[in-house]
Model the fold of this input.
Amino acid sequence: MTVPCVAVERERGEEVRRRLAEAGALAGEYEIAVEDGRIYLPVTAREDVPPSLRGSVVDRDPDRRETPTTPADLLDFEPSIERLGEVVILDEDDPERAAGIARAVMDSDVPCETVVNRASPIEGELRVRRWDVLAGDGTETVHREYGHEFALDIAEVYFSPRLATERHRVAEQVEADERAFDMFAGVGPYAVPMAARGAEVVACDLNERAIAYLRENAERNGVEDRITPIHGDVREIAADWTGWADRIVMNLPHSADEFLETAVALAGDDCLIHYYDIQHEDDPFGPGRAAINEAAGDDYDVTVETEHVVRSYAPHEYNVCLDVRLTRR
Done:
């Protein structure tokens, strides 16, 4: 049986698969195939594919997938779950419901070693949560994203798999021999891909455990010679890197504005800053533009190259990114 498939280069497979999944266009009953460096993603119908990908649709005869047992098959409802490596994450207020979902997840065909339930919001300056482990053992895992591997412990570091597409967008802009400074690096989901593109990266974080994982992840991905991990407050170490950066990542959306003077100090003569913010839908970009212009002062011309919504964060609030170029006067 002929089925429409989106055909793209293999390295774009995860990005395109996510876009198709978000559009509800993936035909899950068919196998995804890889052939001659291209990946073929079966879709429900040509018209369901996002317009920018429709030119990549071809007809193929894919194998039918053996239907796996899902948690929904074992429950009377479709549970909301999130996977991070081999850890499945729940966000349930009812302990009995959470326990039932955990049992169903472990009895299903979902690749999983541990099921946890959120036990707190993100807390403290290290941005970590508390978790209830409902099944399995431990909160350490290895997450795979766009060809890279990231070891982490969700109880000790902050990591959001939902930002994979955004991180890939930034990394794709990086050119070899750039000097990139990641001010809030975590376990390296920006730093590692930027280094893999050939950049020299300085990666700083206040969380000592995150920096330990960053070192491990740099080695895992073969880029340890291009990453300098630094444990500490970026405001206290910036003097050693004054005027150094061609590119700066500021992924601390609740309080990045407090670090803009440091970012300007790190910036070279021509520097692109990826500034993340959380603002109300009425004016999601204005506060960030104003804060960056104030920090740059008379030393730089400020050009906003891109403004986009990364995701909805809360009712009427957006997580946004401004790509802003500073050019020294």
Q: What stands out?
A: The domain at 71-138 is CATH 3.30.300.110 (GMP Synthetase; Chain A, domain 3). Residues 75 and 100 are 8 Å apart (CA to CA). The longest helix spans residues 95-107. The chain has three domains: 3-60, 71-138, 162-328.
